[in-house]
Design a protein that fits this description.
The protein is an all-alpha fold and 93 residues long. 90% of the residues lie in helices and 0% in strands.
């Protein structure tokens, strides 16, 4: 794998990551709107408040889990690139 191809792969990976973080930030900001819509059916104000808090907690938990999965995938990809680079460098010696 040439240096230019590896650099392009890294840039593409980072661009994907930036786009994903931006979309997750947008989703996180909209969680209260989604949870408002989900809890509109409650007639009791306490139930509505508790339902909304639970909903927002679920959204945050799902976002954290997604970020962990993305970080693990990125680490795996980086490890593979590093391994390929090391193998390439040692095979030339």
């Amino acid at each position: 794998m040439s240096k230019r191809v590896r650099l392009s792969a890294i840039i593409l990976t980072r661009a994907k990551l930036v786009l994903m973080v931006a979309s997750l930030s947008f989703i996180g900001g909209c969680s209260s709107l989604v949870c408002d819509a989900r809890t509109d059916e409650y007639t009791n104000e306490l139930d509505k408040t508790l339902g909304q808090q639970e909903c927002e907690q679920q959204v945050r938990s799902n976002l954290r889990q997604h970020r962990k999965e993305q970080a693990a995938a990125k680490k795996e990809e980086t490890d593979q690139l590093l391994k390929a680079s090391i193998e390439n460098a040692t095979s030339k010696s």
